[in-house]
């Protein structure tokens, strides 16, 4: 609710104007039907061409005026709706900037796709639906008053008729939705099944199972069809009721009106316009139900958005210290990064070593110390600008190669050379990298991520398996070039490849998430278990 | 690992004529039900339109001093008509829903069937996104159209037609006057649709761009932090929001203009009919009752007309979705009917390049011996994966031959081919299904013991512990890369083909476990021809033969010892890799 209010506040004047236009449109719409009665009574029955012309003139004026007023109202509300969409996308952008990793952990990628598109659209719509609701309400009130003025009895019939229609249509519709939710869920299941088939199409065509999966899909599709048949029963009742209820009231109005007219209590024109009002109220009572449904959908979508906007960063950024210096140490694993040189972490299982790196780079809170002081006491911006973590999860955003590397060309070229990504750079620095690097092969992505990290020249670089998707020859080149390029700065690489170990200043051998032994590669090779892990000649 | 992922063909989209044919097919497939639906709708509309006609009778009756009894009688008839209308409309709806349900089922089943018979090369190229959208969300859009909007608009159209007929019945001249507004309505609707279609598309595109940017910001949240990209992401996100707003405002402008016109035309029609009725009434050509009947019928025309007009856009979207679905049918079938004699797989002097690109392979020959374990190594981009694709019959060489049992591999039917050759890549797909269903793909009749044996052979102890009934997939049991790899390999063991091609199949497993899986797999595939493509050298040493690929050619081939003795490329790589 607060989201809706916050969205409405900056547009108060515009919304007020919109309400005014809508009120005007309603006040010019309903009297048109009342004029029909006047035309019949004072024009037709009185056989007065002058009065006929006069009333038709009034009607024509209203016919021209009403759409213009309505359109202006619609424009106001829609403009606010469009601005709200923009605002929601902005809010999501800002939230991702402040609490990004926390959002990623708590919101699925599918949901994240839906939030700025479908959900934002639905939530932003609320204001327009509120406008429609208001418009309908005013139409209803003005219409009811005019019918009342023809004859109170007709007024009572038409108001109670609309109420009954709304009451019947509303709850019935609710029941329909309840019975449909199972059906909708099945549609979702079946789509997911189809998506699954497409996702694994390569396997199904290459190894087999296409016949099996086709048969299973047909089975489920048939089940859905049967379920659809079941839903068709109640659905058809409700649609027929919604469609026929108003006509029933038209018939009742006709009956009551005819008796009144026969008695002379109302004029023939009054009867005709009462009939017309009843006809138009069909649409009006339907609108109430329709807009309420949309408002409910908007509410649900807004709740989803608010949930994300409320996600706070995982890490408290209340440290203020700057200028960290000295060794970086994670007491939990015993892993330490000295101020300079290449440290290689050798481990049979990558995950615990990667977790230690996350603690060292403060992507999760820990007891890590930097130059004798807890890492958490430093400002997060300071930590981020000086310690960089490189993993295969690092994302490649869409953009040219130059934009991806984010540094002047000469420096970018050096980084590209060190990461052996020349095959990409040779296609030009304006080569476009698509979202997630999906137009590159796994090896190309990995080398580009490495080049980007090298180009940033962080004081401390922690790299987890930076060359796992690269061939031996290239890996060997990368290891020597990176070691040379980062001489004098701190670099830590998690890998068991001898090609990296050949350049290591020191090696930390990790077992079960703890540093088991420290030393040079040559020293550690004395241990058979280490040799099995870190030497391909064993 | 090659340039293959940079080549991505777009799937075709059907033209308007093909879409019309598709709609015709959907309707014609169930002619009995379709005509029953139409008949019921017409009946319902006819009975509902009798209400204003009878109102005219009442008016004339009142003028003719009817008794109350007569008024009661006619009004009772009106109410009876409404009841009949209700029954017919409910039956029509029921038949309409069922018709739509059947048509939707037929549509989605035929799409999935078609997708499952796509040529391999298309499957590889299309990428999941496009094909996935077509089989899932596009099918749903069209199905909703068939189930819901279709029947609704059909009732509205029929209602409008019946109402116009009714004005003619009441008074042919007034009927003509009422028709005067149809041409401008038609023209403005056409104009609106022509402009709105691209505007809606742009709006959708802006929305998916925003979605893509936001989800990229989410997926890359840590990267944003680590590279301090907040400012760029903010600018980009704000620009996406702005474009979403601009595109929506454009749609709103078009809608505002169209709806304004629509409202004016609808009510203008009423004024015109009333005017004409007045003139003719004064001339004595018309009773008051007929005039009122015609006027009140005209009042009613507005509602269904608005209903149709507001749904036009959705129909357009439905047609666009159907065009994409039909596009899948436009992919040419590959005639594949060659039958191999024996299981000798070989490449002879093949050249190949992707799309219009330069050659990736240059006259390369490779003759794996039956039962041998051949490892293909070489630097990234040397063409290793391309060799795998030619051997597996996915692509056709530009020149030279890729043959299995003497016939071109790419001419062998997929069902036949996969009994001989199976390609396993590093992309391991796990279906949202039970472990059993994930395994029995190639052998639907395989017993549980055979499945367990295969799991044992690939060292998947976790799977044996959890049992064959465990549900796999994102929202059930999520597998690690290594576990997914084991499933992929177990599938191959169960499929038991003559030749297995492993394209970096064990990349991405922890170094320690990779060894286990490879050893287990070697044992599991004993006696089969195994062609393993690798960028790491683990697998090379134990191979029967090693082929080194460089720059699209076989640089050297032989056993590990032979190549080391030769002191060529491989020897260099090996020494580097060992850390010598």
TrEMBL record, chain B:
UniProt cross-references to SMART domains, sorted A to Z: AAA (SM00382)
Keyword field contains NAD: no
Main location: membrane
The species this protein was found in: Glycomyces terrestris
Residues spanning the signal sequence: none
SUPFAM superfamilies in UniProt: ABC transporter transmembrane region, P-loop containing nucleoside triphosphate hydrolases
Any GO molecular function: ATP hydrolysis activity
Pfam families listed in its UniProt record: ABC_membrane, ABC_tran
Compartments (UniProt record): Cell membrane
Domain ABC transmembrane type-1: 36-317
Domain ABC transporter: 345-576
Protein name: ABC transporter ATP-binding protein
Keyword list, A-Z: ATP-binding, Cell inner membrane, Cell membrane, Membrane, Nucleotide-binding, Transmembrane, Transmembrane helix, Transport
Ranges that cross the membrane: 38-59, 71-88, 161-187
UniProt-listed Gene3D superfamilies: ABC transporter type 1, transmembrane domain, P-loop containing nucleotide triphosphate hydrolases
A Gene Ontology cellular-component term: plasma membrane
Topological category with respect to the lipid bilayer: Multi-pass membrane protein
């Amino acid at each position: 609710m607060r989201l809706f209010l916050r969205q409405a506040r900056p547009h108060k004047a515009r919304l007020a104007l919109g309400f005014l236009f809508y009120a005007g449109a309603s006040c010019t719409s309903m009297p048109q039907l009342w004029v029909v009665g006047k035309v019949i009574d004072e024009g037709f029955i009185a056989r007065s061409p002058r009065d006929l012309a006069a009333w038709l003139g009034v009607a024509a004026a209203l016919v021209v005026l009403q759409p213009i007023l309505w359109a202006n109202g619609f424009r106001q509300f829609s403009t606010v709706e469009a601005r709200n969409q923009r605002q929601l996308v902005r809010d999501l952008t800002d939230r991702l900037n402040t609490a990004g990793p926390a959002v990623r952990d708590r919101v699925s990628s599918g949901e994240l796709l839906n939030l700025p598109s479908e959900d934002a659209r639905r939530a932003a719509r609320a204001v327009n639906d509120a406008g429609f609701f208001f418009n309908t309400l005013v139409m209803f009130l003005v219409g009811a008053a005019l019918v009342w003025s023809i004859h109170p009895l007709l007024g009572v019939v038409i108001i109670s008729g609309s109420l009954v229609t709304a009451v019947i249509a509303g709850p019935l519709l609710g029941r329909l939705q309840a019975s449909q939710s199972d059906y909708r869920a099945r549609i979702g299941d079946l789509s997911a099944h189809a998506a699954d088939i497409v996702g694994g199409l390569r396997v199904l065509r290459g190894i087999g199972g296409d016949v099996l999966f086709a048969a299973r899909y047909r089975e489920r599709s048939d089940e859905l069809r049967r379920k659809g048949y079941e839903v068709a029963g109640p659905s058809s009742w409700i649609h027929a009721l919604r469609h026929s209820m108003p006509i029933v009231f038209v018939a009742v109005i006709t009956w009551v009106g005819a008796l009144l007219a026969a008695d002379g209590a109302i004029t023939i024109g009054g009867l005709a316009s009462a009939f017309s009002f009843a006809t138009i109220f069909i649409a009006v009572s339907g609108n109430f139900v329709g807009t309420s449904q949309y408002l409910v959908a908007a509410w649900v979508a807004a709740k989803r958005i608010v949930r994300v906007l409320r996600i706070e960063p995982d890490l408290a950024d209340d440290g203020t210290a700057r200028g960290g210096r000295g060794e970086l140490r994670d007491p939990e694993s015993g892993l330490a990064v000295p101020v300079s040189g290449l440290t290689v972490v050798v481990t049979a299982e990558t995950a615990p070593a990667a977790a230690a790196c996350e603690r060292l780079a403060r992507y999760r809170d820990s007891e890590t110390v930097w130059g004798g002081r807890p890492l958490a006491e430093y400002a997060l911006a300071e930590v981020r600008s000086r310690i960089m973590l490189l993993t295969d999860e690092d994302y490649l955003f869409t953009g040219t190669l130059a934009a991806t590397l984010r540094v002047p060309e000469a420096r970018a070229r050096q980084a590209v050379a060190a990461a052996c990504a020349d095959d990409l750079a040779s296609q030009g620095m304006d080569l476009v990298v698509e979202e997630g690097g999906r137009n590159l092969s796994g090896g190309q992505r990995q080398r580009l991520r490495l080049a980007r990290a090298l180009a940033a020249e962080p004081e401390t670089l922690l790299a987890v398996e930076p060359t796992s998707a690269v061939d031996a020859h290239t890996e060997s080149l990368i290891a020597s070039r990176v070691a040379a390029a980062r001489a004098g700065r701190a670099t830590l690489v998690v890998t068991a490849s001898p090609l990296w170990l050949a350049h290591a200043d020191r090696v930390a051998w990790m077992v079960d998430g703890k540093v088991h032994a420290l030393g040079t590669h040559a020293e550690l090779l004395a241990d058979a278990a280490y040799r099995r892990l870190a030497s391909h000649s064993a | 690992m090659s340039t293959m992922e940079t080549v991505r063909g777009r799937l075709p989209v059907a033209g308007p004529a093909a879409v019309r044919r598709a709609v015709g097919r959907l309707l014609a497939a169930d002619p009995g039900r379709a005509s029953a639906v139409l008949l019921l709708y017409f009946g319902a509309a006819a009975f509902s339109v009798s209400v204003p006609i009878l109102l005219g009778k009442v008016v004339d009756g009142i003028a003719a001093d009817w008794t109350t009894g007569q008024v009661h009688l006619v009004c009772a008839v009106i109410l009876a008509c409404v009841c009949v209308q209700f029954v017919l409309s409910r039956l029509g709806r029921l038949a309409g829903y069922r018709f739509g349900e059947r048509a939707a089922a037929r549509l989605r089943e035929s799409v999935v069937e078609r997708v499952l018979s796509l040529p391999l090369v298309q499957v590889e190229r299309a990428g999941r996104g496009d094909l996935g959208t077509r089989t899932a969300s596009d099918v749903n859009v069209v199905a909703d159209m068939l189930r819901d909007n279709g029947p609704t608009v059909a009732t509205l159209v029929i209602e409008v037609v019946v109402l116009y007929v009714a004005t003619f019945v009441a008074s042919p001249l007034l009927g003509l006057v009422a028709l005067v507004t149809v041409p401008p309505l038609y023209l403005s609707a056409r104009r609106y649709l022509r402009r709105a279609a691209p505007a809606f598309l742009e709006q959708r595109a802006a929305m998916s761009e925003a979605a893509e940017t936001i989800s990229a910001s989410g997926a890359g949240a840590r990267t944003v932090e680590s590279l301090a990209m907040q400012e760029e992401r903010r600018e980009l996100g704000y620009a996406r929001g702005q474009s979403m707003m601009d595109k929506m405002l454009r749609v709103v402008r078009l809608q505002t203009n169209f709806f304004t016109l629509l409202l004016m035309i609808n009510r203008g029609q009423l004024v015109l009919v009333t005017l004409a009725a007045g003139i003719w009434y004064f001339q004595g050509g018309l009773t008051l009752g007929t005039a009122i009947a015609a006027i009140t019928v005209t009042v009613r025309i507005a509602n269904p007309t608005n209903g149709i007009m507001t749904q036009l856009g959705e129909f357009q979207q439905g047609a666009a979705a159907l065009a994409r679905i039909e596009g899948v049918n436009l992919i040419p079938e590959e005639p594949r009917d060659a039958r191999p004699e024996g299981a000798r797989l070989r490449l002879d002097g093949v050249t190949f390049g992707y799309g219009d690109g330069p050659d990736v392979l240059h006259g390369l020959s490779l003759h794996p011996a039956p039962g041998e374990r051949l490892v293909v190594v070489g630097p990234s981009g040397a063409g290793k994966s391309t060799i795998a694709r030619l051997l597996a019959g996915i692509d056709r060489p530009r020149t030279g031959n890729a043959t299995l049992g003497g016939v071109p591999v790419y001419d062998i039917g997929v069902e036949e081919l996969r009994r001989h050759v199976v390609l396993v890549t590093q992309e391991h797909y796990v279906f949202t299904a039970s472990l059993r269903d994930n395994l029995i793909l190639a052998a639907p009749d395989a017993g549980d013991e055979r499945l367990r044996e295969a799991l044992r052979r690939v060292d998947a102890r976790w799977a044996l512990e959890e049992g064959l009934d465990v549900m796999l997939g994102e929202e059930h049991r999520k597998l690690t890369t290594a576990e997914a790899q084991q499933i992929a390999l177990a599938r191959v063991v169960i499929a038991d083909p003559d030749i297995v091609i492993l394209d970096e199949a064990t990349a991405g497993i922890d170094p320690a476990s990779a060894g286990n899986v490879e050893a287990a797999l070697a044992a599991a595939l004993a006696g089969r021809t195994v062609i393993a493509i690798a960028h790491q050298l683990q697998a090379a040493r134990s191979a029967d033969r090693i082929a080194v690929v460089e720059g699209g050619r076989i640089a050297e081939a032989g056993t590990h010892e032979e190549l080391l003795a030769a002191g060529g490329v491989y020897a260099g790589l090996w020494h580097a890799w060992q850390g010598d």
